[in-house]
Design goal:
Helix 7 (216-229) runs parallel beside helix 8 (247-255) and helix 17 runs antiparallel to helix 18 (505-512). 37% of the residues are buried. The radius of gyration is 25 Å and the shape is globular. Strand 17 and strand 18 (339-348) form a beta hairpin. The chain is built from 19 helices and 21 strands. It folds into four domains: 5-97, no CATH class; 100-190, Pdz3 Domain (Roll), CATH 2.30.42.10; 194-328 and 342-416, Alpha-Beta Complex (2-enoyl-CoA Hydratase, Chain A, domain 1); 419-526, no CATH class. By secondary structure, it is of the alpha+beta class. The strands form five sheets. Strands 3, 4, 5, 6, 7 and 8 form a six-stranded antiparallel β-sheet that branches. The chain has a six-stranded mixed β-sheet with strand order 10-11-12-15-16-21, sandwiched between helices. It is 38% helix and 20% strand. It has helices at residues 8-24, 41-56, 63-76, 87-98, 125-129, 152-159, 216-229, 247-255, 301-311, 363-367, 369-376, 419-429, 431-442, 445-449, 453-459, 464-475, 487-503, 505-512, 517-527; strands spanning 83-85, 100-103, 106-111, 114-120, 136-140, 143-144, 166-172, 180-185, 187-190, 194-199, 204-209, 234-238, 263-268, 274-278, 289-294, 316-319, 327-333, 339-348, 392-394, 400-402, 411-412. Belongs to the peptidase S41A family. Keywords: Hydrolase, Membrane, Protease, Serine protease, Transmembrane, Transmembrane helix. It comes from Dokdonia ponticola. Residues 177-358 form the Tail specific protease domain.
């Protein structure tokens, strides 16, 4: 089945909804499970109803599921970011935002009838004992892992465990006639949120952050100090497609660009109580030139960083209007392993802007705002961005900024909404291209695994034949592609995906950014 042009906005809106909902889970690291609520008739009514169903209803009913439905129904009447988190999801979310987990340190695919290692995380437990990309994990502690359907959850229970415990793996490696045995010592494995850091030019460094986790500030500082040692006096901070996370991490990063005692943001709750956050110290890049990259998927904590710098006349915001989430959540335990993240305040940028977009028309309309932007031309032209004079604010140096829904960039860069490019971007982040490249690597795994990054960049060429093979691969899965006009773009994306599987995210981002319009604009601005 061919994916028609009209479906492309839908595909991207689905991705936006997923990312922003995830980001909305993750705003404030503090939780509240100590609040005491006295008895009242409204709660008693709900309790009685659940008891009646539990004990008197004619059929057996899972009342836990009823409670979940009730909780979700209540939250649906509040705002789009007050969210219920079931027990099975809470642990994974917390682990992801903590910035590390205990395990063996591999990225893997369930491939054909076995668990196949895509990449051993550099300096992780598996990397240290010699496990490589392409290895099949046949068994763990004598538990067979091949020839059966294994869910991610069940596999995680086998491979994860306590720090300093061991798991014995049986590995099938291409070119080896016998199974290999590895004893892997479980350890803390980082989940990086700074996914790329390198020099774009002799003076311009680049850092990409994909979410704001507990470890993000430390990761950011490590990357920034390394770039300064390489000569960076300018920085491109890429927050595109970053759905947010912990506000404290965003505040700490903004602090590094601002002089001491500059307002970063303030929050206001229902009683009108205001909490202000100021920069606490001289930042290590307060004298450097900074460019903040945002797009329609940059939300929450990303918007805090962009708004703080824009309102303090620090650097340039480049890209497209951000998502528009200015609500603060706090996590509150519900006592059974589940939690609710409830909106408790609104946040405002230093000039007093609320960048929360309207949500009175309901969640569906709220999350499909991307489609409206697509259709009204905002993604192609800055002139199509709707602003209200009543929400006009002025920075200390006199620059006009607007509230009412997202951060409007200082320098607008249109989105390429060409059907083929949109489709390619979708495929780049989907599983189709990853699986195709994995199978290409499997044709000569020992050769590819022996390459250095420099050798890979210089020696590996994506041929026209590989492009045609990928098009055929996609067609067998119901996706029709055209490659005449964009053959070189296909080649770059395929090679970037290969680099990611062999060398990680940093190599991937460097290659994808070579043809990125916003990156090209940043380089041009930095040279002026």
């Amino acid at each position: 089945m061919k994916l028609k042009k009209k479906y492309i906005p839908f595909l991207f809106s689905v991705g936006i909804v997923f990312g922003i909902v995830l980001g909305s889970f993750l705003n404030f690291g503090s939780s509240s499970d100590t609040a005491f609520f006295g008895s009242n008739k409204k709660k008693e009514k709900l309790n009685k109803l659940i008891d009646y169903i539990d004990y008197e209803y004619v059929d057996t009913v899972d009342t836990d599921s009823i409670v979940d439905v009730t909780v979700n129904g209540i939250l649906d009447h509040l705002d789009p970011h007050s969210t219920y988190i079931p027990p099975e999801e809470l642990k994974e979310i917390e682990e992801n935002m903590k910035g590390d987990f205990v395990g063996i340190g591999v990225r893997f695919y369930p491939y054909k009838d076995s668990i196949t290692v895509i990449q051993a995380i550099v300096d992780g437990p598996s990397d240290k004992v010699g496990i490589r990309g392409g290895d099949r994990i046949i068994a763990a502690d004598n538990i067979p892992l091949f020839g059966q359907a294994m869910s991610d959850d069940s596999l995680s229970k086998i491979l994860k465990g306590r720090v300093n415990t061991f798991v014995d793996l049986k590995i099938k490696r291409q070119g080896e006639s016998e199974l290999l045995s590895f004893r892997v010592k479980r350890d803390i494995v980082p989940i990086s949120s700074v996914v790329a850091s390198y020099m774009l030019t002799d003076q311009l460094g680049y850092i990409k952050i994909n979410r704001f986790a507990e470890t993000t500030y430390d990761e950011f500082m490590t990357a920034l100090k390394a770039l300064k040692r390489e000569g960076a006096t300018q920085l491109a901070l890429d927050l595109r497609d970053n759905p947010g996370g912990y506000v404290s991490s965003a505040e700490a990063i903004a602090d590094e660009f601002l002089k001491k005692n500059k307002l970063i943001l303030f929050t206001k709750n229902k009683t009108g109580k205001i909490n202000e956050t100021y920069s606490k110290r001289g930042g290590i890049f307060e004298d450097g030139e900074v460019f903040i990259l945002i797009n329609e998927n940059s939300a929450s904590a990303s918007e805090i960083v962009a708004g703080a710098l824009q309102d303090n006349d620090k650097g340039l915001i480049v890209g497209r209007r951000s998502f528009g989430k200015g609500l603060v959540q706090r996590e509150m335990s519900l006592g059974d392993g589940s939690a609710v993240r409830l909106t408790i305040a609104r946040y405002y940028t230093p000039t007093g802007r609320s960048i929360q977009k309207p949500y009175e028309l309901g969640n569906k309309d709220y999350f499909e705002d991307y489609l409206e932007r697509y259709e009204n031309g905002e993604l192609r032209s800055a002139d199509s961005i709707k602003v209200a004079d009543s929400l006009k604010f002025k920075t200390p140096l006199g620059k006009i900024v607007y509230g009412g829904g997202g951060i409007i960039p200082d320098v607008f860069v249109p989105k390429n909404i060409d059907y083929e490019i949109e489709h390619l971007n979708y495929l780049l982040r989907s599983g189709y291209m990853r699986m195709f490249i994995f199978e290409q690597l499997e044709k000569d795994r020992s050769y590819y695994n022996a390459l250095s990054l420099e050798e890979f960049q210089n020696d590996i060429v994506i041929s026209d034949t590989i492009v045609e093979d990928f098009i055929s691969y996609a067609q067998l899965r119901g996706i029709n592609l055209r490659a005449k006009k964009y053959r070189e773009v296909y080649k770059n994306y395929l090679k970037a995906t290969m680099a990611k599987q062999l060398f990680g995210d940093n190599a991937f981002e460097q290659m994808v950014n070579q043809d990125d319009a916003i990156i090209r604009k940043i380089i041009s601005l930095s040279a002026d």
